[in-house]
Structure formats: C-alpha cells, structure tokens
Known about the structure:
The complex is a heterodimer.
Chain A: E1 2-9, E2 12-21, H1 23-40, E3 44-55, H2 57-72, E4 76-80, H3 84-92
Parallel strand pairs in A: 2-3, 3-4
Antiparallel strand pairs in A: 1-2
Chain B: E1 3-12, H1 17-29, H2 36-57, E2 64-72, E3 76-83, H3 91-94, H4 111-118, E4 121-127, E5 131-139
Antiparallel strand pairs in B: 1-2, 2-3, 3-5, 4-5
Helix pairs in contact in B: 1-2, 2-4
Amino acid sequence: MAKVTFSSAGDTLIAYLSGEIDHHSAQYLRDEIDSLLQSRMPQTLVLDFSAVSFMDSSGVGLILGRARRMQAGEGRVVVQQPPAQIQKMLELAHVAYV
Amino acid sequence: MKTRNVARISFPSRSANEAFARGALAAFLSQADPTVNQLADIKTAVSEAVTNCIVHAYPDRSGVVRMTLSLLEGGRVRIVIADSGVGIPDVEKAMEPLYTTGNPDERAGLGFAVMQSFMDRVKVTSQPGRGTRVILEKQLETRE
C-alpha cells in the first residue's frame, strides 16, 4: 500500500511518497498528485522517495508522466532522497535525483 | 539441477495481486535466507513480469497468472511466470528498452530491461493468441 502526503512552500509542492509503488498503487498516487497539481499549479514538484520501501518501473512511469505534465507548464520535477534499491531503478531509467 | 523446493501459485490478473505475488515470493525465499539486496532485486523482477501479464496479456479481460517458484540446489532461484493471454508477436522488439504498447505517458517501457538488469538470466517465449512464459533465474549469495 502506498501513500502520499503533501506540503508546499512558495511555488514548490512537495509530495512525500511512502510504501510500495507498483502498477496498482501508482494509479492512486498519480490521481492524488495530479489533483494537487491542477489546484495549486506549482512551478516545482518535488517527489520525495525517502519512505518508499519498494518501487518497480511503474514508479519511473509515475515520475516521467508528472515530468511531462510539469514541463508543459514550464515547470520541473525534482526527485529526492531515493533509498539505495530505488536509486538502482532510477539509474537504469536515466532519471536524475538529489 | 535438482529442485530442493517448489511452490505453484495462480491468481487472477488483478492489479491488487502484484503485491500478493511479491509477498508470496518473499515468503517462499525466506528459507534460502537471501540478502536484502538480492531479495529486492528478485521482487522487482517478479513485479515487472506479473505487471506485464496484467497490463498486456489480458488487456480486455481478466485471466489467470501462473507463478512457479523453485529453489534449486546450490542456492539458485528459478521463477516461471506464465499467462494464457494475447501473446507477444515479436519478443525481441518487446524486450527493447523504452518499447511499450501501454500508455506511453504512464508506462516507462522498462519491464524487460529491469528483469534483465536485476536477474542473472531471463528467457521469454510467447505464442500470439496462446500466451507468454517468462523464466527468471538468479544465483543467491551464500552467507558465511
């Protein structure tokens, strides 16, 4: 089961993801994040992975989908604090993180 | 190679069963005491294979996903994930990184690339209209 909570500062929205991200849970996370993107219209979306315990390539799809959405409004996505196993997945997909 | 233990599980192609498949895999492999990293690699590869069945094999209906977990002598793990879905017309093309027939805005097209990167051996056989069979193998590290 995956969850997401949000905080915002200025024109930055931070999504704190937790739990297991797979094709099933990514659908829920996508809906939650896109709903906030639509209402807040931030310039930067930060996806925080520090509490994610598992992620398959559905998580990469979640990131790329949000990045396309943000870029359409000249915004950007920052991926932060992925645990080691998730770093491996991001590196395979050539997704940068901090 | 002689089989030390085997489990056969089948379940409907519902996305809620992706987590079930990983949980069943972890429970089965606990007897082999894999390292945290190896278990995570195998769980990820299995999640990709099961997701492929759910998203691609049965696009318009629910079907059955069959998973056979084998622990072989010498600490080798073999997992077979099979479906009776639509099949893959061109397996070589399907295994190219970034290739997807799913929604390109939400699917990364990395499923087979992840399986190949996280496992020692991946073999895919498919017959259009009959189904697909994915064999995943990995050698577990022995802990001293």
